């Protein structure tokens, strides 16, 4: 095996534009639930590419799909059809309430497409209405328009002037949403679980109410399922657990299982792009579509999602035991997008100590830990991770 060392990180990190604080680790390989660093230390990975690696690291079926497709056709250009693109679009539509797909390379780009489609629809059908209601603490991406749509407070002063036309209202507040609707409003866009905000689920009544408001005011309902889609919350799409008929859904992350592909999926009644309105060089390339198709096929297998729900229940049970023992707070989320309030402990401190102990976690807030393991998680890894986490909490208590 090629040798690596942490000095590579030290020596070469300055060649990268610093965009985030990274530990001085360099991951060399991944296998299922585990990542291995430059010294071949193993880490149980509950970040999984940021809720991306649906089937864990480097699963055989993704490797095979990559090899098969790359030896056949990598990119004929987006100006031509290709078979994996057609197959994946069919699979997404046949397994959802939607009819048409536009493929992109990232979740932000899918949301950018949704914003553009809603505005075009408003031009054609609602006298130029263009405003989109989004929610405080939401996250929709890092392009200029999606940062403008995002309700994360830290984004507010950045890169001014932003794209105008986004009205932010408190999440789970139907009255505030209704009050924000005016003649220029064209759509409401939300995450059904606010992931980056710390795993905050939308209330059932709130979503049903939004759906009714959209019908009453002729608005488009857009669900950003970049983080919640493809089985993450225990159903193929999170909207299926709500009483709602969204017009547009965006997907990313788990759709590719680790490779860059995302999508905007729409009800055909709102389809209104003319040729040239939307596109992109890599959109719908057969290599990514073939891999995504293989991942989706696995997620659609009969026992896949029931097992996600079984292991989620077990995970929550083990987390509540931990909460009881160490005085942690509430558990939030659905399926395998879960979070726990860390009570008296600092979330980022736990993350740091857990990493040293061989467990990769994320703290989306000072007071929370988020868990986004591969959907192939079993009770065995849950026990292993909970034992590591308990060890970290014991150390913190002892201090
Ligand atoms: C809900 C949601 N929307 C959009 C995005 C942006 O996706 P990407 O990073 O692929 O652009 C994310 C990423 O975390 C997300 O969680």
From TrEMBL:
<protein>
    <submittedName>
        <fullName>Acetylornithine aminotransferase apoenzyme</fullName>
    </submittedName>
</protein>
<dbReference type="Pfam" id="PF00202">
    <property type="entry name" value="Aminotran_3"/>
</dbReference>
<comment type="pathway">
    <text>Amino-acid biosynthesis.</text>
</comment>
<dbReference type="GO" id="GO:0030170">
    <property type="term" value="F:pyridoxal phosphate binding"/>
</dbReference>
<dbReference type="GO" id="GO:0042802">
    <property type="term" value="F:identical protein binding"/>
</dbReference>
<dbReference type="InterPro" id="IPR004636">
    <property type="entry name" value="AcOrn/SuccOrn_fam"/>
</dbReference>
<keyword id="KW-0663">Pyridoxal phosphate</keyword>
<comment type="similarity">
    <text>Belongs to the class-III pyridoxal-phosphate-dependent aminotransferase family.</text>
</comment>
<dbReference type="InterPro" id="IPR050103">
    <property type="entry name" value="Class-III_PLP-dep_AT"/>
</dbReference>
<dbReference type="GO" id="GO:0006526">
    <property type="term" value="P:L-arginine biosynthetic process"/>
</dbReference>
<dbReference type="GO" id="GO:0008483">
    <property type="term" value="F:transaminase activity"/>
</dbReference>
<keyword id="KW-0808">Transferase</keyword>
<dbReference type="InterPro" id="IPR049704">
    <property type="entry name" value="Aminotrans_3_PPA_site"/>
</dbReference>
<keyword id="KW-0028">Amino-acid biosynthesis</keyword>
<dbReference type="InterPro" id="IPR015421">
    <property type="entry name" value="PyrdxlP-dep_Trfase_major"/>
</dbReference>
<dbReference type="InterPro" id="IPR015424">
    <property type="entry name" value="PyrdxlP-dep_Trfase"/>
</dbReference>
<dbReference type="InterPro" id="IPR005814">
    <property type="entry name" value="Aminotrans_3"/>
</dbReference>
<keyword id="KW-0032">Aminotransferase</keyword>
<dbReference type="InterPro" id="IPR015422">
    <property type="entry name" value="PyrdxlP-dep_Trfase_small"/>
</dbReference>
């Amino acid at each position: 095996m090629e040798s690596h060392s942490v000095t590579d990180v030290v020596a070469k990190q300055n060649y990268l534009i610093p965009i985030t604080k990274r530990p001085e680790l360099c991951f060399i390989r991944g296998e299922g639930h585990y990542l291995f660093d430059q010294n071949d230390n193993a880490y149980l990975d509950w970040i999984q590419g940021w809720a991306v690696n649906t089937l864990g690291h480097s699963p055989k079926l993704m490797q095979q799909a990559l090899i098969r497709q790359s030896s056949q056709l990598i990119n004929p250009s987006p100006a031509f059809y290709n078979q994996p693109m057609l197959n994946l679009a069919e699979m997404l539509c046949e397994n959802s309430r939607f009819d048409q797909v536009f493929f992109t390379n990232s979740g932000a780009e899918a949301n950018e497409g949704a914003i553009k489609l809603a505005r075009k629809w408003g031009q054609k059908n609602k006298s130029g209405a263009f405003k989109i209601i989004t929610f405080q603490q939401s996250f929709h991406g890092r392009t200029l328009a999606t940062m403008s749509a995002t309700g994360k407070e830290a984004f507010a002063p950045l890169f001014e002037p932003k794209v105008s036309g986004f009205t932010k209202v408190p999440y789970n507040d139907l009255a505030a949403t209704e009050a924000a609707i005016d003649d220029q409003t064209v759509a409401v866009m939300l995450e059904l679980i606010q992931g980056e905000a710390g795993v905050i689920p939308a209330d059932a009544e709130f979503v049903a109410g939004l759906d009714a408001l959209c019908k009453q005011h002729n608005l488009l309902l857009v669900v950003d399922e970049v983080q919640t889609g493809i089985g993450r919350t225990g159903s193929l799409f999170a909207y299926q657990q709500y009483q709602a008929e969204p017009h547009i859904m965006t997907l990313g992350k788990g759709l590719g299982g680790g490779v860059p592909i995302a999508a905007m999926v729409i009800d055909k009644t709102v389809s209104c792009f003319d040729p040239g309105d939307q596109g992109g060089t890599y959109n719908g390339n057969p290599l990514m579509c073939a891999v995504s198709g293989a991942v989706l096929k696995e997620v659609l297998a009969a026992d896949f999602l029931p097992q996600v729900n079984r292991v989620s229940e077990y995970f929550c049970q083990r987390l509540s035991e931990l909460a009881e023992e160490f005085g942690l707070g509430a558990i939030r989320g659905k399926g395998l997008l879960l979070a726990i309030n860390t009570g008296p402990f600092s979330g980022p401190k736990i993350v740091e100590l857990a990493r040293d102990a061989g467990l990769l976690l994320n703290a989306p807030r000072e007071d929370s830990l988020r868990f986004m393991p591969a959907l192939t998680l079993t009770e065995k890894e849950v026990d292993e991770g909970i034992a590591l986490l308990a060890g970290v909490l014991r150390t913190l208590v002892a201090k």
